[in-house]
Amino acid sequence: MGFNSSDDLINQITTNGKADSQILQKTLVAAGTAGHWQHLLTSAGNIPAATFGGAEATFVATDNTWSEGAIPIGDQTAPATKHLTAAGASLIAAAGAPWFVQLVDMVGYAKLTTTNVSTTGTKTITMTPIGSSGAAVDRYPNGEGLRLAVAAIAAMGANAPTMQITYLNTAGASKTTLAGCVSTASATNGTILNSGNAANKYGPFLPLAVGDTGVSDIVNLTWGGTAHASGSVAILLCKPLGQPIPVPATGLFNVFDYVNTLPSLPRLRNGANLTALVYNTAATTSGGTFFMSFDYAWGG
Amino acid sequence: MAGFSNAAAWAAAVDAGKTHVSTFRKTVASAATAANDFVDYTYFAGNPAANFYASAPLEAAHVESIRGIHIPQMAGAERQFLKSITAMSAASSATGTSNQNQRQMLADYLLYYPFIDTDAVGELQEMVPTVALPRYAAGQVICVAQSASSAVGQFTMTYTNQDGVPGRVSQNTFTKVVAGGGTLVSSATSAVAGSLPFVGLQAGDSGVRSIESVTFTAAGGGLMALVVVQPLFHFYTTQECRRTTTGNLESYGAATYFETVLMRQPVEIKNGAVLGIVGLGNAGSLASSVLVGTIQTIWS
């Protein structure tokens, strides 16, 4: 359970001390491209840059104990549940403003490298479908609310193939993301390749099939057209938390309050592996500094 | 019919994945607009891709869905609503301020009649009813320039109204001198100060189901499309986003955020909607400025 009332929320925070806050800081590893979303996983900072270990084309589950770095939010003992009370973000870069920042819980990824990127065709992903066991990987039962993005985890070579992911939805049915989505040629490290500033670009996440609300299994990714000349990508499986936070100017810190507007209190589930995606209106300077804070409380 | 019974259901839908976020980024063309000009952002480059109303002259056509801001399609009895809009306007240069304080309108673009010759004085330009109005019983009509126009024209149109009554006659409407396509040319007077978002209808009418003909009584020196839209949500952007590059470096910018359930009404977005934005340049030219934002929808 969460909070029974505003009084309960205040009591849990002030009397019982059931609240905390965290800061995510990153230095952008490469320039961000205008009109694209960018992930921060390969950027240095606190938490450190991820290297995306694990076997090729195999799903790697991530949680708040991920060995490559995770924000150390603790788990709650049932029936307590943890909820965001506020989240804010700032970016300091000479160019690129304005930005949007989307907080996400990354449940896991599957990486594709070398010929799985430089050739077209269907690349099968090995993954055990997400269930409802209560384990960290199943923190969104049957993948409820999860979304897919294809992220560059190294500089990409020329060409922009089409991409389409086959997945199992929350009912276990085989579905595909919207056909025709085009990747980004020569994208910088960190670019969300399905996003962009042209036709057939969708961001931050690939549109799911009609009626679907989540993803329980990544089955494969099919590249069409002309393959990327080179590069490495990761298929990210994420739960967006709260709405995108606008950052209108460099150095401005903008905060969303999830209690005193419409009280939505997005839930942070046990095991949540928090990171952020950034939307660049203009080309964001490499080496820019990113900050994000989020406050949370728990009750029950 | 599905809807939301309370605030808890509203918040729970997001947690259950029944939500979608899309970004949009549209760059106004370099041709100058004037203060108090409305512009049709769908006409300009970016994401989604530009919509030039390029089809057979005078034939009714639907705007391609790929030209609208992406939203998911609903299955069965599900109904989708606008949850929030966040928007920012990036200046065309480090010192540009003329894109500040814009009024904007999100609309569902239903039907259009392209390439109406504003020089055809005295000729009855008959529209071809190739397709019918989708999704709504009637809509409002905007006049979008498809070229520069060199003179102040005047026209009336005949149309079928919201009740299906044909032969209705619009108010006499002026067209403005504009430097390029994408500007709304309609005006209540021969001056820019009289700019209208919509063509005035015959007394007693509230909408247009189809357009039958257009007759110019003064030449406008250009081409225009008449577009039937369903207005969905009015919003605005305030201070332009920019950063100076000389002297003491200063950053400016603001974001506007509208949570519909708090600030107006969570208007329904119907299946197949082609979402676009009409803006009003309040402070001067919008040329080369960038409108960027996110739209979040929610469904039950």
Summarize the structure.
Chain A has about 300 residues and is mainly beta.
Q: Which blocks of ≥5 consecutive residues of chain A have pLDDT under 50? A: none
Query: Would you count the extended β strands of chain B for me?
Result: 19
Shape designation of chain A: globular
Helix share of residues of chain B? under 10%
Number of helices of chain B: 2
One letter per element, helices H and strands E, the order of chain B comes to HEEEEEEEEEEEEEEEEHEEE
Strand content of chain B: 35-45%
Give the total of domains of chain B: 1
Determine the number of helices of chain A (DSSP H or I, runs of at least 4 residues): 2
Count of spatially separate domains of chain A: 1
Strand portion of chain A:
35-45%
Low-confidence stretches of chain B: none
Which chains make the largest contact? Answer: A-B, 52 and 48 residues
Q: Please report the total strand number of chain A as a whole number.
A: 16
**Sheet with the most strands, sense and barrel status of chain A:** 6 strands, antiparallel
**Main structural class of chain A:** mainly beta
What does it look like?
The complex is a heterodimer of chains A (300) and B (300). By secondary structure, chain A is mainly beta. Chain A has helices at residues 6-14, 115-118, and strands at residues 19-27, 37-39, 44-46, 59-61, 81-92, 99-112, 121-124, 147-152, 162-168, 174-176, 217-224, 233-247, 254-257, 267-268, 274-280, 289-299. Chain B is mainly beta. The radius of gyration of chain B is 20 Å and the shape is globular. Chain B has helices spanning 7-15, 260-263; strands at residues 19-27, 38-40, 45-47, 80-90, 102-117, 124-126, 140-145, 153-161, 168-169, 173-175, 186-187, 208-218, 223-237, 242-243, 251-252, 256-259, 268-269, 275-280, 290-299. The termini of chain B are close together. The model of chain B has no long low-confidence stretch (mean pLDDT 95). In chain B, strands 1, 3, 4, 16, 17 and 19 form a six-stranded antiparallel sheet that branches. In chain B, strands 6, 8, 9, 10, 11 and 12 form a six-stranded antiparallel sheet that branches. A five-stranded antiparallel sheet of chain B has the order 2-18-5-13-7, with no helix packed on it. Chain B has one domain. In chain B, a hairpin with a 6-residue loop joins β8 (153-161) and β9 (168-169). The interface between A and B is large, with 52 and 48 residues.
